[in-house]
Prior knowledge:
hpI Integrase, Chain A; 18 helices; 6 strands; elongated
Amino acid sequence: MRPNSQPGVQPGDRVLPRINVDTVTGVRLLPIKQPRAPGRPLPKKPYGVEWDNPGGIPRRPSAFFESTELLERKVIELNAAKKQGNVALVPTSDEIAEWRVFKAKIGKVTPLEVYAGWRAWTEKTGHAPCALRVDKAVDDYLAEEKKRLGSGEPDAVTKKRKGQTLDANSYRQKRCKLLRFKAEFGLAMMDEPTGPGIEDWLDSLEMVKASDTFNDHVKQIRSLYYHYPKVVANSPTSDIKMRDDMTDKVRVIPVKDIAKLLVFAKDKMPYLLPRLACEVFCGLRFTSASKLTRDLIKLDTKTLVLPKWIMKTKSEHRLQCVPENFWDWAAIGHDDDRCWEMTPSDYMHAKSSLFESAEVVNPGNGLRHTMPSRHVAAYNDPGLIARILCHRDQQKLWDTYLGVSTPEEGWQHFMLRPGNAARAAAGERLPVPARTSRPRARESSRAGQRR
């Protein structure tokens, strides 16, 4: 069971926080109040605590609060009052039975001597109890990482701010994943989450389907634990096996839906096409496509320039080996200033609007996976697709995308042009060339090596 989970509690329900309650003092957390009937709103004060009050009325007073912070503050006050003798201590029968078992095991040794021995053992072995909660650890870690973003105006060429050692997009992804981890395990101590518990939680998330997304979450959580080596000796993520094989989890967009996107964009949003075509036919990441400038798509020489400041790999590439139909689509909207005035945020919202308006489901990173799966099926050239994707590991690409799409789907994808896309969007099959046809010399994997 995960740290914040409780029997019968569904995802999204309020759960009891991780509060250090001294049960010997008679202070106990109450179950969270739930709606009286399905569909009714949650109570305004769902978090409760009760304590012993011998001789008083009532004998078991209670109080309820709107937030876990107010609840924790009340528990701290009650524990302090008990220890100061302001409230009588009345152990329960279970606590008395537990005490008797403890005394029987330690014999004539006093509890203080047991504590002293345990403390010495923890210091010697490094198994000292953890005193850092996950939410505090995440907040402090992200605050330190944010300092690496630098300050001042970004440089016109490198797009980096003065003193920047961490890319803004990398920080955004790190923050997004660690905040999810905090939302689930925030009230637990850093040594409480386990590898199987974290893995089960990741598998339950709807957005974590492909193994690359799963691995990204594990890497960011691992970096959090590596930041606190003196707090937790061993990261729980060391028990989680990274998922390398994602062939059966790659989700692609059907050719008909790709055609619908292109047709709708050509008719209603032509200024999107230069960037969108880079994703659809070149497999460019969204983060890279959103940073493109007009001069990087050279229509006269049919060269796609990818400077290192827009690439995740931080290396520069000049591609002359991209599919021929890319240039037909990139030419539409290339002279439209609206395309190049868009910020990454503008492009993200415009692209989302395009999917919604064209009634196409985006499986998440679908364009990035669709292009290589179709290219491998159509051209059967791992070196060429590795060059286009700026990827170093040909074998991994081959193992990942081989068999995801059929050769027919591959040819249909790379035959989409402004003149025939409407027919493909209507479900019509485009004429497929002979199977012996190969990409022209311009598309060979060696051609892309020219600088």
